[in-house]
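Inverse folding, one chain.
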């Protein structure tokens, strides 16, 4: 995928990622659960299962997105880049 760099620490059940997104990221729908913190930048998350609701996350904001099809989501980067530290299920 274009526009994403990340490092991973974890095992076969959970991962801790530090992810750097750029504006060139190819948007895609994700159904994995994420719990994390925006370290740098600004991003918009569109939720497909909630009528297309959009939420903006800025540096310093925490995020908690449950997993599953009903919580599918897509990120769009609004700043030059966004850096997020997050834990996610690998199942």
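Residues assigned per position:
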């Amino acid at each position: 995928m274009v526009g994403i760099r990340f490092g991973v620490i974890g095992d076969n059940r959970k991962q801790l990622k530090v992810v750097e997104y750029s504006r060139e990221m190819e948007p895609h729908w994700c159904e994995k659960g994420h719990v994390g913190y925006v370290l740098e930048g600004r991003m918009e998350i569109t939720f497909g299962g909630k009528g297309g609701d959009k939420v903006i996350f800025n540096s310093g904001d925490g995020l908690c997105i449950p997993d599953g099809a009903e919580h599918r989501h897509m990120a769009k980067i609004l700043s030059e880049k966004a850096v997020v530290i997050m834990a996610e299920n690998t199942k």
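The first strand starts at residue 4 and ends at 10. The radius of gyration is 12 Å.
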